[in-house]
Amino acid sequence: MTAADAASPGKSAMSPPLIVCSHVHIAYGRQEVVHDACLEIPRGILLPFVGPNGAGKTTLLRAILGLLKPSAGEIRTPFADKPAGYVPQQKSIDPLYPVSTRQIVEMGLYPELGPWRRPGAGQRRRVDDVLARFGLSDHQRKTFGELSGGMKQKALLGRALVSGAEVFVMDEPTSELDEDTERDVLAHLVALARDEGKTVLLAHHGLDQAAALAGRVCVVHHGRVHLDSIPEARQRLAGTGSATRGRHHA
């Protein structure tokens, strides 16, 4: 199963896949969550992972990141040379933790700085550029808990971007956002793939919004993984609640 068709025409046709899942099984104890997943993802595409709550979308993405070890099969990624930029759900960050928006973004520099070095002039400029890109410059001194939901998500996206990552993995990046803010955040993700050649993988609950982002989606349902066109995905997910957009994400 290859995601090459999800890229722009000819974009990745001649290049090897960036990420390969080969007969991957993932289990929690005796319960198998992902069964025999085979998937090839080329460089520079945006690929939504869709399916019902609890179907295994986040589990598969966490395994691709290396945070979970498959019980069988193999996952090949380039992350040993350059780690992926992981964007968790904003609710995973404690809003009472006294850290500023700028400090959140600067955390993306930790892999190159280590625990003790402070950002140099060039690195500070990178942070400034990312804050400006996401409209956060005027809010950089606010604590994370003071930000709106959309600004929190942009800060986490900025943290991943400032790291220089080529692959971005996102867990429900528009969860709990209003529709206007959701469109704004998703537009940034589309631009990363379309304009900068980044690879963007995101878990998304509803298919309608995913259909506006990409021509093909990775459907995770009953532990099985399928790369589908939008009509195929809609048929496969019929009756699950994920065949429509769905405003309530989990």
Characterization of the model:
By secondary structure, this protein is α/β, with parallel strands linked by helices. It folds into two domains: 1-84 and 167-250, Rossmann fold; 93-164, no CATH class. The chain is 30% helix and 23% strand. It has helices at residues 57-65, 101-106, 110-113, 121-133, 149-162, 179-196, 207-211, 230-236, and strands at 19-28, 31-41, 46-50, 72-76, 85-87, 167-171, 199-204, 216-221, 224-229. The strands form two sheets. Strands 5-6-7-3-8-9 form a six-stranded mixed sheet, with helices on both faces. Strand 1 (19-28) and strand 2 (31-41) form a beta hairpin. The radius of gyration is 18 Å and the shape is globular.
Please specify the SSE layout and strand pairing.
Layout: E1 19-28, E2 31-41, E3 46-50, H1 57-65, E4 72-76, E5 85-87, H2 101-106, H3 110-113, H4 121-133, H5 149-162, E6 167-171, H6 179-196, E7 199-204, H7 207-211, E8 216-221, E9 224-229, H8 230-236
Parallel strand pairs: 3-7, 3-8, 5-6, 6-7
Antiparallel strand pairs: 1-2, 1-4, 8-9
